[in-house]
Write a structure and sequence with these properties.
By secondary structure, the protein is mainly α. The chain contains twelve helices and no strands. The longest helix has 38 residues. The chain is globular, with a radius of gyration of 19 Å. The relative contact order is 0.19. About 2% of the residues have low confidence. This is Bile acid:sodium symporter family protein. It holds the Pfam family SBF. Its main location: membrane.
Length: 295
């Protein structure tokens, strides 16, 4: 599986197209908007880059995962939010503009944080040294993640109508690629997939739920609005598994490292909507209660 042209060539190209599509939805104003919501952005970024890897590390130790699967969970934790987070935020009436700003910043930071966190995990769990993201592979990650986003932003600035027309097709393409790669990763390890699912299913499910809860809880603690809290929870809680799968399969060339992201990519479509429904329901109940209070 790892040696197939689909994985070694097709998957990086597909990710580049997806990140290019992400760039088509971004403008410099999205970065400028950060100044108007500094608490939300700084809080979400600290969760994304510092807290969540710590949570993931605690989970893999608590569940005593095999080294390769542990590295896969850490790679997943290091991956930023993406277009799926924006979609769920829109679905549950979150502040999508905040999502877009966070996605823009995360996409830049992830090009550097992913190699750092992944290499630390590889070193800690003492897996094969050749698996590490050395300078050449770090440059490959930057090229896969950051360069297409910048090109997409340039295209958006010059040909805005084209960017708007391309938005939906690229989103659909992203979903198709995610499904195809998830199936491919699972099929590639089909002899062990049930065992892997038992080992990482609970870990990745808990990680998703804890990530969503942390994002939502922090936003409320910072006294952000309910839409901002939903946006933060989705951005922090829903990771870009296409990036994690691409790095695992085409950069690290290891299908076992890809399994946590593959399992997570299925579970997040169950956990995130359930979480979104629960917080939306709670918000509706709170609003009804406040309406009943005497003036």
């Amino acid at each position: 599986m790892q040696d197939s042209a689909l994985i070694t060539t097709g998957l990086p190209i597909a990710l580049a197209i997806i990140m290019f599509g992400l760039g088509l939805s971004l403008t410099t104003a999205d970065f400028a908007r950060v100044a108007r919501s500094p608490r939300a952005v700084v809080g979400a970024l600290i969760l994304q880059i510092v807290v969540l890897p710590g949570v993931a590390f605690g989970l893999v130790l608590a569940f005593d995962l095999p080294a390769m699967l542990a590295v896969g969970v850490m790679l997943l934790a290091a991956s930023p939010g993406g277009t799926t987070a924006n979609l769920f935020s829109h679905l549950f009436r979150g502040d999508v503009a905040l999502n877009i700003s966070l996605t823009a910043i995360n996409s830049v930071l992830a090009a550097f944080s992913i190699p750092l966190i992944t290499n630390l995990a590889i070193g800690y769990f003492d897996v094969d040294g050749e698996l590490g993201l050395q300078f050449g592979k770090v440059a490959q990650v930057i090229a896969l993640v950051l360069v297409p986003v910048v090109i997409g932003m340039i295209v958006r600035a010059r040909w805005e109508d084209f960017a708007k027309q391309a938005d939906k097709p690229v989103r659909l393409f992203s979903i198709i690629v995610l499904v195809a790669v998830t199936i491919g990763a699972i099929v590639g390890e089909r002899e062990n997939v049930l065992d892997y699912a038992r080992q990482v299913g609970l870990v990745t499910g808990l990680f998703c739920l804890l990530s969503l809860s942390a994002g939502y809880g922090l936003a409320l603690a910072l006294r952000l609005s309910r839409p901002q809290a939903i946006a933060t929870s989705m951005e922090v809680g829903i990771h870009n598994t296409t990036i994690a799968l691409t790095i695992a399969l085409s950069v690290l060339d290891n299908a076992m490292v890809a399994i946590p992201a593959a399992v997570y990519s299925i579970l997040m479509y169950i956990v995130a909507p359930a979480f979104g429904w629960a917080v939306s329901r709670t918000a509706a109940v709170d609003e009804e209660a406040s309406d009943l209070e005497p003036a």
